[in-house]
Amino acid sequence: MTVSRTVCIGFLALIAVGTLLLMLPISVASGEWNNLLTALFTATSAVCVTGLIVVDTGTYFSSFGQGVVLTLIQLGGLGYMAATTLLLLLIGRRLGLKDRLAIQQAMETSELANVKMLLISIVSMVMIFELTGAFCLMPTFREDFGLGRSLWLSIFHSISAFNNAGFSLFSDSLVGYAGNWWLMAVISALIIIGGIGYQVIMEALMWLRDRLRGKKSRSVFSLHFKIVTSTTFVLLILGTIAFLLIEFDNPETLANRDFGTKVLLAGFQSVVMRTAGFNSIDIGAMETSSLFMAIALMFVGASPGSTGGGIKTTTLRILLVSTYAALRGKEEVNSYQRQIPLPRVLKAISVVFASAISVVIIIICISLSDPNLSFIGILFEAVSAFATVGVSIGVTTDLSVLGQIFIIIAMYIGRVGILLLMSALIGDPRPTAIHYPEEDLLTG
User: Fold this and answer.
1) What is the mean pLDDT of residues 102-109?
2) Does the keyword section mention Cell cycle (predicted)?
3) CA separation, residue 252 to residues 170, 218, 287, 307, 443 (Å)
């Protein structure tokens, strides 16, 4: 039982438990037994923090069922190994080397010695941000609902946003609050913070702590921090500009809004299209060029160590600087006056290639099972599932049983990671002392 197999099987076990709980009559608003496929699809989407749904979460599930969905989102966002290790720490078990390696690999961190303190700090940080988000959302929901209902809505949407899940208890997601600047800003902030990764958040908090303590020493941010923050910022700006320009005169999305609201909604869609499945406009009514822009953003996704999916911002940046180095005839890949190791470049290439192949296979499978669907709809749905984004143009509910199963598989692969899954299936590589002679070949 390797680390990768432990993680993959752990996610499967969590999905299985969630499916069983969501099948119970107590989880369904009608009080009847839930359909197996519906429960499996919802549990997978929640554990994989995706947000794709085949039933309306707010009306189909009871309060207990919604609580199960929210718990699965929280555990899925933390990750199976983090949640399991936290439970072991609570019952007093000491962490062995295998446990530390599992946490290190599952959370994509370089830390090994202080795994326990890292985990405690991450859980504490998550609780602080989620509670703060719920507190900030409370006044908005309180205007339309009673105290108890508004409290539940605030907690649910805060956890869903921070974990980049995109689940909403409203039938139209957040379309009803499209003009509410405060709610859009809070949800966007939670999504962005949850999507940049724990390491970046911790570095930012350390910098803020030093400034509050009056330390004048110059902070040296890591290369990971610089690449994640700069790439995220550029993608958000480019996405906002692209959606604003393309949808500006679209009467079904932004045309009937004032300019300020247009900018707000374009920025919000730029945020959610990369990581979370909320929507403030009718996604199915967007222009085809906007949908392709959204597909590109979804494929990139969030950052390593975060609750989002996709190939990750660092992977995109490594490919860009590698291409730049190749065009300039350089043999080293550099960024911010630091050299990126060759194994990291090879891993980035592998992630993109394997992810692209996976998406293509998923598209082919859905095209065979649901030939009545449009190509853009299938492509959008496949990328949204694989990148664990959860945005849909209305295709999810039209999928056949086999099509839903393919989407379930895509969500699972996207959450555990394609390379981790391949490592679990093939096994860890064995060291070898054999080195073959080098020979050149033509490329390009």
Assistant:
1) 60
2) no
3) 20, 50, 10, 31, 46
